[in-house]
């Protein structure tokens, strides 16, 4: 991965190690799958069909009720990689940015916004770490005032997704990305914080000195209880404009990632339905 600094320069010198708060995105900061949330504008622009849009309602319902395990996630990854092959990268990014505020704004947990604001007030960096792609993660990070975003990356050829994942920011790879940015920026991970809802993010939580689980799935709740980790319940999605009134600073993307986050409704539907039937 490569890193770049905001337009106003590099990091300020500090007397001690820098501290970051690492946040998963879906069901941790926002109440809905960031990928499924964009199924309607993707349909309006002709990227997906009506059948996929209709299936998204059921997929979202299942997403809210349960956590996808490793096999489900892998099936989803394979399906969406095949599905978005050939999509125009600029078109996807444009759709997301044009519809971002209307779609994502009401989905941010009030408690997550308060938590982010609290870390910023303490002088901590905020880093979004998500398996989705930068065309979704980066704009959401900008809304939240995040300092960095780390996301999945799909190979792009001639401005179109080539159907090959170059970096999948998931599981152990999330922890690896966190260690890389810590070395680059100067974070002391033993003093850093991490937040997630899913057992698949156990490596991410174990990478820091202060892990906290948010709305944990059953497996993560069991682990958190055994390890004595704090558990929080976020229940109040509310417009971010009402919670973070100041205009956030631009996000610095820690990965020039595009593609995997441009997932449409049918993706999770196929993986979840297949699992439920068996």
Short description:
The chain has about 280 residues and is α/β, with parallel strands linked by helices.
What is the topology?
Blueprint (H helix, E strand, L loop, with lengths): L19 E4 L15 H6 L5 H16 L4 H14 L5 H16 L5 H12 L3 E9 H11 L3 E10 L2 E8 L4 H14 L7 E4 L5 H5 L3 E5 L3 H10 L3 E2 L7 H4 L8 E2 L11 H13 L1
Parallel strand pairs: 1-2, 1-5, 2-3, 3-8, 5-6, 6-7
Antiparallel strand pairs: 3-4
Helix pairs in contact: 2-11, 3-11, 4-6
Keywords: Hydrolase, Magnesium, Membrane, Metal-binding, Transmembrane, Transmembrane helix
Protein name: HAD-IB family hydrolase
GO molecular function, one term: hydrolase activity
Residue runs with pLDDT of under 50 for 5 or more positions:
1-14, 56-66, 247-278
DSSP strand tally = 8
- Proportion of beta-strand residues: 15-25%
Helix/strand order, N-terminal first? EHHHHHEHEEHEHEHEHEH
Content-based structural category: alpha/beta
Shape: globular
Q: In angstroms, what separates the terminal alpha carbons? A: 39 Å
Nearest-angstrom radius of gyration? 18 Å
Mean pLDDT: 75
State the share of residues found in helices, binned by percent. Answer: 40-55%
Biggest β-sheet strands, sense, barrel: 8 strands, mixed
Total helices: the number is 11
């Amino acid at each position: 991965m490569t890193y770049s600094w905001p337009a106003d320069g590099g990091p300020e010198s500090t007397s001690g190690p820098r501290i970051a708060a690492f946040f998963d995105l879906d069901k941790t900061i926002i109440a809905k799958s960031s990928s499924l949330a964009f199924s309607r504008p993707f349909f309006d622009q002709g990227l997906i069909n009506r059948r996929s849009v209709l299936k998204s309602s059921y997929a979202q319902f299942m997403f809210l009720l349960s956590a996808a395990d490793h096999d489900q996630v892998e099936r989803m990854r394979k399906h969406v990689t095949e599905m978005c092959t050939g999509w125009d990268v600029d078109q996807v990014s444009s759709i997301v940015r044009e519809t971002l505020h209307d779609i994502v704004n009401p989905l941010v947990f009030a408690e997550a916004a308060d938590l982010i604001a609290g870390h910023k007030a303490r002088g901590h960096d905020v880093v979004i770490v998500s398996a989705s792609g930068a065309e979704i993660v980066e704009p959401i990070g900008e809304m939240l005032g995040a300092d960095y975003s780390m996301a999945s990356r799909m190979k792009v050829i001639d401005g179109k997704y080539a159907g090959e994942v170059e970096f999948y920011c998931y599981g152990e790879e999330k922890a690896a990305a966190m260690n890389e940015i810590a070395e680059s920026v100067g974070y002391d991970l033993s003093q850093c914080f991490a937040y997630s809802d899913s057992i698949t993010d156990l490596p991410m939580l174990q990478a820091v000195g202060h892990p906290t689980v948010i709305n944990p799935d059953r497996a993560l709740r069991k682990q958190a209880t055994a390890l004595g980790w704090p558990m929080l319940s976020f229940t109040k999605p509310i417009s971010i404009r009402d919670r973070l009134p100041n205009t956030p600073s631009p996000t610095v993307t820690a990965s020039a990632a595009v593609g995997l986050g441009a997932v449409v409704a049918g993706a999770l539907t196929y993986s979840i339905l297949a699992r439920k039937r068996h």
